[in-house]
Design goal:
Layout: H1 3-20, H2 22-34, H3 46-57, H4 67-82, H5 95-110, H6 121-131
Helix pairs in contact: 1-2, 1-4, 3-4, 4-5
């Protein structure tokens, strides 16, 4: 399991445990295991995790709150914060896509190749001032 996957699992656990309590988080993990998505496999089965979290918590369709979607958005926001990125809300929200993009960001940051599209606007301006270059070596 890679570092990003460990960070994702830690973020999922922190979010669910804080929002729902330890006992309810464990109940969700048992439910996910029954649905072929054990907790440690969440990074590999994001689509199943998302679908089943929304099934058990609600997705906003025919529910008042849509807790599943809110939990997913919270997981992504916290993960973005841990990666030092601004939290931006875009509609429509796709959990699997958002996590995939954050994994790419993590890999790029780890390799020292941070591109403007994954930087917050503040960090991008700082990078341009420091290097005098934008994306692809283009001079500012």
């Amino acid at each position: 399991m890679g570092d990003f996957d460990k960070l994702l699992l830690k973020t999922v656990d922190e979010t669910l445990s804080y929002a729902l309590g330890e006992t309810n988080a464990r109940i969700i993990y048992r439910y996910l295991e029954e649905k072929s998505c054990p907790f440690l496999e969440v990074p590999l089965k994001l689509d199943i995790f998302s679908r089943e979290l929304r099934a058990v918590m609600g997705s906003g369709k025919r529910q008042i709150i849509g807790s599943g979607k809110i939990l997913e958005e919270t997981i992504v926001a916290i993960l973005r914060g841990k990666l030092g990125l601004e939290c931006t809300k875009k509609d429509p929200f796709d959990f699997v896509d958002a996590i995939g993009k954050l994994k790419d960001v993590y890999s790029e940051k780890k390799n020292g190749n941070v591109h403007p599209f994954i930087l917050s606007s503040r960090a991008f301006v700082s990078q341009v001032k420091k290097t005098g270059q934008r994306d692809g070596g283009e001079k500012a």
